[in-house]
Amino acid sequence: MERPKTTKQLIIELTGGNQGLVSSAHHGLYETPLNNIYQKLDSDEAVAFAASSWKSREKDLDSFASFVESASAYEIFNEVYRIGMPWLKKHRRISEELGPLHEKLNPFRGKDLKARLESVNPESLQTLREGLQREVNIYVFGSGYQEAKKMLDGDNSGIIVMGFQNAYPKSGRIVPAFAAEVSTMLSKYPQHYQSLEDITSPRRVIQPSLF
């Protein structure tokens, strides 16, 4: 089974054009890619997880990293969604025109998250776990690079210049640029997925014949 790719306009509507939400989603996807887990997530879940987990790391990395280190994958996602899903639902404004696309991008309808995560390659989950324990980057427009570098005493290792944005922030263009980047990142992920029934159904064990 394969879902369609998302679009810039859908991401704008999914985040309600809220700059804080769409920028956090971008930063989260950039620092902790979900490419090896996306097949087991709804598109809404991927955006909410990326945005909320990044915000948690930015706000209190030590506390969040300590939790991530010992928690199960389901516990991590469940905790991140405690804030992430209400944040997304608060701003989400899906138009009638994009309603069918939005439905196709969310084939699991949020059901059986634990079973879906348990079917993910353990190595992929470990890579994500490690990423969630790292410090966040500082994202700047081209015009703000030198000032950011100066504030960090010349250390630019954690500064990311957002080349997809105008060098100088321009009203009306910031959110669409973030949305385009989020759409591009998600569209590069594998789009095929297993049905929920295939994921949750126990595998048949064929007993060898005695004759």
Structural descriptors:
mainly alpha; single chain; 211 residues
Task: Please give a quick description of this structure.
With 211 residues, the chain is an all-alpha fold. It has ten helices and two strands. It has helices spanning 8-14, 19-31, 43-70, 73-91, 99-104, 113-118, 122-131, 145-151, 174-187, 196-200; strands at 138-140, 159-161.
Low-confidence parts, pLDDT < 50 over ≥5 residues?
Answer: 204-211
Q: Tell me the β content.
A: under 5%
| Main beta-sheet strand count, sense and barrel state | 2 strands, parallel
Helicity range of the residues?
A: 40-55%
CA-based shape = globular
H and E order: HHHHHHHEHEHH
Extended strand count: 2
Structural domain tally: 1
Q: What's the mean pLDDT score?
A: 94
Termini separation comes to: 38 Å
Placed side by side, the strands forming the largest sheet appear as 1-2
Q: Using only CA atoms, what is the Rg? A: 19 Å
Indicate the structural class: mainly alpha
**Total of helices:** 10
What does the model show?
This protein has 10 helices and 2 strands, in the order αααααααβαβαα. By secondary structure, the chain is mostly helical. The protein has one domain. Helix 8 (145-151) links the parallel strand 1 (138-140) and strand 2. Helix 3 crosses helix 4 (73-91). The protein is globular and about 55 Å long. Residues 204-211 have low confidence and may be disordered.
